[in-house]
């Protein structure tokens, strides 16, 4: 995906099994845990492009969060600060070839960043 594309959406859930059944029946999403990502079932839309995960709801994660693919998380976080946003979580590894980070914009919207390639099976 090119720099700037939305690549993933996490949905916070309190009851994973209930959420899996709900979103599968509502939208037809295929939802499954993937080896290496246990406890984090991932969904894929029927278009086979859109997708995301069902993540545990918790403090600071109560609304869906979109992730935008970027060429460089470090450069993007530097721009976030220049433009009046706030870094919530610095670059963290997902795998050996992929990373993520979180920031808020000047209006307090929380957005995730993604860099790299993740083999999710």
Gyration radius from CA atoms, angstroms: 15 Å
How many strands? 8
CATH topology group: 2,3-Dihydroxybiphenyl 1,2-Dioxygenase, domain 1
What topology, given as strand order, has the largest sheet? 2-3-4-1-5-8-7-6
Unreliable parts: none
Overall number of structural domains: 1
Write the CATH architecture name: Roll
CATH superfamily: 2,3-Dihydroxybiphenyl 1,2-Dioxygenase, domain 1
Q: Kindly state the mean pLDDT as a whole number?
A: 91
Q: How many distinct helices?
A: 2
SSE class? alpha+beta
Largest sheet: 8 strands, mixed
Terminal residue distance: 18 Å
| H/E element sequence | EHEEEEHEEE
What is the CATH class? Answer: Alpha Beta
- Beta-strand proportion: 35-45%
Shape: globular
Helix content: 10-25%
Protein name: VOC domain-containing protein
Pfam families: Glyoxalase
Organism: Ruania alba
Domain VOC: 5-116
Description:
With 121 residues, the chain is α+β, with helices and mostly antiparallel strands. It has one domain (6-116): 2,3-Dihydroxybiphenyl 1,2-Dioxygenase, domain 1. 18% of the residues lie in helices and 40% in strands. The chain is built from two helices and eight strands, in the order E-H-E-E-E-E-H-E-E-E. It has an eight-stranded mixed beta sheet with strand order 2-3-4-1-5-8-7-6, covered by helices on one side. The radius of gyration is 15 Å and the shape is globular. The mean pLDDT is 91.
Write the layout of secondary structure elements.
Elements: E1 6-13, H1 16-27, E2 30-32, E3 42-44, E4 51-56, E5 65-69, H2 73-82, E6 86-95, E7 98-104, E8 110-116
Parallel strand pairs: 1-4, 5-8
Antiparallel strand pairs: 1-5, 2-3, 3-4, 6-7, 7-8
Pfam families: Glyoxalase
InterPro entries: Anthracycline_SecMetBiosynth, Glyas_Bleomycin-R_OHBP_Dase, Glyas_Fos-R_dOase_dom, VOC_core
Domain VOC: 5-116
């Amino acid at each position: 995906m090119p720099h700037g594309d939305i690549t993933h959406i996490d949905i916070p859930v309190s009851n994973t099994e209930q959420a899996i059944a709900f979103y599968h029946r509502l939208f037809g999403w295929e939802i499954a845990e993937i080896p290496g990502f246990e406890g984090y079932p991932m969904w894929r839309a029927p278009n086979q492009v859109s997708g995301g995960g069902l993540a545990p709801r918790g403090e600071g994660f109560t609304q869906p969060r979109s992730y935008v693919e970027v060429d460089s998380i470090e450069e993007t976080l530097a721009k976030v600060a220049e433009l009046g946003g706030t870094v919530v979580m610095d670059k963290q590894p997902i795998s050996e070839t992929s990373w993520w980070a979180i920031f808020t914009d000047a209006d307090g919207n929380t957005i995730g960043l993604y860099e790299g390639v993740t083999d999710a099976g």
